[in-house]
Amino acid sequence: MKDQLELLWELQKIDLDLKHIKEERERYPRETKKLDEKMSIERERLQAEKGKVDLLEKERREKERQLSSSQEKIKKAEGRMSEVKTNKEYQALLTEIETIKGASSREEEEILQVLEEIDELKKDLSKREKEVAVLLEKTETEKKMIQERIAQDEIAWKKQMERREVLSKQIESKLNKLYNTLKEKRQGVGVVNVRQETCQGCFVHIPPQMFIEVQKNKEIIRCPNCNRILYFEGEGKAK
Prior knowledge:
Helices cover 77% and strands 4% of the residues. By secondary structure, the chain is mostly helical. Strands 2-1-3 form a 3-stranded mixed beta sheet. Helix 1 (2-79) packs antiparallel against helix 2.
């Protein structure tokens, strides 16, 4: 029975490894998705910032068109000065020119303000583009590492499954069936180690005499609390 228990303990360790690999397999797609979503958000933010610059450029062009129109109106108005015949008409034309010049001056100030805003946004945009480029490179590296871990896990999974098949054939069918039943009921753990008279499955103290027998690993002894098969691993095993 000692050999059977040792085989069973080895099988349990393999099953725990397989469980871990399975959990990792399920986690990797979630990690990749998070990385993709993060990059998508950063790209959208960057695009929104570029959109702000584009809108301001459009606003600048519109104000420059208005300024050009105002300057053209001033030239035409000044060109009519020689055609004025009365003082009243002259004063009205001067008022018109001054009004247009006032509007033109405001348009020039607005254009300068927009240009300053565009310049600041472009500086921020350039900085953000560099940051996103670094983040993208880092993200791609992380995704590559995930792919490498997936490949490594596939190799480990295959190796452990092959080993499990060999061990399963060496374990008595009745014992194997018991182990599988316990494993299904106890979150994948059917055999547990015992340390300092404590079951490492449920962490409940077991009787001293039972602990002495468990250390011998000569018979199937189950935890009085969680019902798992108990195994002793370590130095100082009872003979």
